[in-house]
Amino acid sequence: MRPSIVAALILSILTSVALSQERPAPLLAATPPMGWNSWNWFAEKVTDKDIRQAADLLVSSGMRDAGYVYLNIDDTWEGSRDANGVLHTNAKFPDMKALADYVHGKGLKLGIYSSPGPQTCARFEGSLGHEDQDAELFASWGIDYLKYDLCSFHNKVMRQAYSGDSAEAMVHQYKMMRDAYERMHQALLRSGRPIVYSLCQYGFDSVWQWGPEVGANLWRTTGDITPTFDRISLIGREQAGLARYAGPGHWNDPDMLEIGNGKLTLDENRTHMGMWAMLAAPLLAGNNLSQLTPEITSILTNREIIAIDQDRLGKEADRIFAEGPIEIWARPLADGSKALAIFNFGEQRAYLRGISLHLEQAGAAKGWNARDIWMAKELGPISDSTPFTVPRHGSVILCLSH
Q: Is the pTM of this model over 0.70?
């Protein structure tokens, strides 16, 4: 081979290496994570077989192709630690690596659960004092997502170290909490595997203000959700004012979806989905995938609603109007359009008499057209006085464009 050719090859290789070193790693959770979590349906009864079946159903239902790619095992998978401190699974999960391989083979990602305390919420083995061991273990299995639940760290560590509810005690307690989450963050980095880091600590100490500092990709902002409209609407409305803390790689998390659970009506399920999409919230379903109805599937896989949630601009909605049971929320989208949601949290059908749509506050004052997302219908030009009827516990979700 001629020297000039050899030199050219060497230069090409060196250039490729340099470019690969300069290219930043893909941003974890660039859009809100989407998937399914085992707790709301299976709770402590979840097994390896259940997760494999869930993987199959996420594919066959079309949910995977709609974006639901994280399949997250919640609490009760843990066994005991051996003499070297290595955590083992219990009998319900005989081979976590094989399970991860199965899930990955379906084009999905596998999530897992632990706690910074000595025990999890269900009193299984936590990660306290074993952060590096557990992070390495999760990485060796091929885990893609970690939900890290405060639980026993709150009562058995924080409050025992600094008892009482005085301002001074709380300052010390919350510093311990932040340090605990940072320890696992560093352990995950040292593991060498990109793992989405989800803080479950119920909004203590205004976590949205410091979550990114401890490497969180998402953080719970409230207590647990339940499949009742009162609880869902309360949690959703409590997100007002938090938009400035969310963005690509770090999201406010108002907890998992209850769509298809309990006795929620069709309108209530739509309102739940629509509000979470407006909030740029993680979309983690928790329903019985083996009993999906066409109506629930159509809500969970509505591409236009999901597109709002997953918009790459990552700007969470702000509440721009509230009067009685009626609220209007708006968010800008990456293509210059706007998403506008009208929610009726009241017990009667609302006709919006005398209520402006507040399009100027939404950034769409004049010359904009509307598309009704739930109706999949173009509405044409829109103004503040365009009439809408919103069902009890219902919503209207609009995409506004020039």
A: yes
What type of residue sits at position 35? G
Please report, for the chain, how many H helices and E strands are present, in that order: 13, 16
* CB contact set of 307 (below 8 Å; sequence gap of 6+): none
Please tell me which residue in 74, 75, 144, 149 is annotated as part of the active site. Answer: 149
Is 267 one of the annotated active-site residues of the chain? Answer: no
Nearest to 326 by CA among 358, 362, 350: 350
224 belongs to the catalytic site? yes
Beta bridge mates, 323: 326
Catalytic residue from among 50, 205, 224, 267: 224
> What percentage of the chain carries pLDDT values higher than 90?
92
Residue-wise burial string across 245-279, b where 16 or more C-beta atoms lie within 10 A, e elsewhere: bbbbbbbbbbbbbbbbbbebeebbbbbbbbbbbbb
The per-residue pLDDT for range 12-34, each reduced to its tens digit, is 444 444 444 556 678 999 999 99
Strand residue runs (E) in 231-368: 251-253, 283-285, 318-323, 326-332, 338-344
pLDDT digits (tens, 9 = 90+) for 287-302: 999 999 999 999 999 9
